[in-house]
Amino acid sequence: MRSMMIFYLFYFLCLCLSVACVVCVCVWNSQWRGGFAWDGSSREFNWHPVLMVTGLVVLYGNGAVLYRIPLTWAHSKLPWKILHAALMFLSLILSIVGLCAVFNVHNAGNIPNLYSLHSWIGIAATALFAFQWVAGFAGFLLPWTPLSMRKLLKPVHVWLGGSILILSIAASISGINEKLFFVLKGTTNGTQPYSSLPPEAVVANSLGVLIVAFGLIVLKILSTSEWQRPDGSEDRTYAVRTSRTKNCWIERCHPKCCVLLSSSLYYVMKVIEEQLLAKSHPPF
Ligand code: HEM
């Protein structure tokens, strides 16, 4: 009981830090960096930090801890798997759009691509994430993947998941620092130097601290064994059983899933039937 209360305390912190990170990155880029556009200018660049932090840090971290929420344990695992995959997919899309923004700006201004340490870490994080999503989808959501394969994949998936979060936090921190060194020059562009800690630097540094705190909380939640979902028995019902059963895969899902599918099919058939009847016997 005490352990669950501590979990919810950590989870609450995780949610608060999520909101704080998104608000902070938006405020920084709208108040100090001129807001947003999609025209190859520095205003297009501003989408990059916003989408990377929202997608590859905040949404990703929240998607990763989804299974640890005890409220989800009472239900079948399948809907949570789908939600986990959907959150991760959204996070992947946001990060790809975020990368498109910075590549566009670089190409429009003839700035070389992928020269910095930040960009190397960042591209590695995104590429690994894309690979992880595809492998996770194929391994855990496709019903014909054998259980033995899932068992093999799971520890790799968990390890890679944590590593991607660490990489994306490293990329965010280095990106924030790089940006502050680029823009807070002090003399040339009417800004105060970074070394004098102007308000913009305070906000951006704080964003970095919030991202690190968020990452530490997520990693703590992921690494505490007491907070893991008890043995995934549903996994077995969803996975393809070997040659002994030849019935349709839907039947091998959770029974509730079967009821839901058949009642939705029944409803769709009813609507089609009513439409056809209305066409053949018009009211007037
Ligand atoms: C998960 C987070 C992030 C990832 C994966 C990431 C990834 C990348 C990549 C791959 C590039 C290279 C684009 C090119 O070469 O055309 C880049 C550029 C850049 N990013 Fe990020 N980024 C992230 C977060 C941030 C954040 C939060 C900032 C803060 C402003 C930032 C600032 C920059 C800057 C200034 C550049 C241009 C200079 C350079 O190529 O290093 N990034 N980013």
From TrEMBL:
Coiled coil: none annotated. It is found in: Late endosome membrane; Lysosome membrane. Residues 13-223 form the Cytochrome b561 domain. Its cofactor is heme b. GO terms for cellular component: late endosome membrane; lysosomal membrane. The chain crosses the membrane at residues 48-70, 82-105, 117-144, 156-176, 202-222. Transmembrane reductase that uses ascorbate as an electron donor in the cytoplasm and transfers electrons across membranes to reduce iron cations Fe(3+) into Fe(2+) in the lumen of the late endosome and lysosome. Reduced iron can then be extruded from the late endosome and lysosome to the cytoplasm by divalent metal-specific transporters. It is therefore most probably involved in endosomal and lysosomal cellular iron homeostasis. Homodimer. This is Lysosomal membrane ascorbate-dependent ferrireductase CYB561A3. It comes from Oryzias melastigma (Marine medaka). The lineage of its organism: Eukaryota, Metazoa, Chordata, Craniata, Vertebrata.
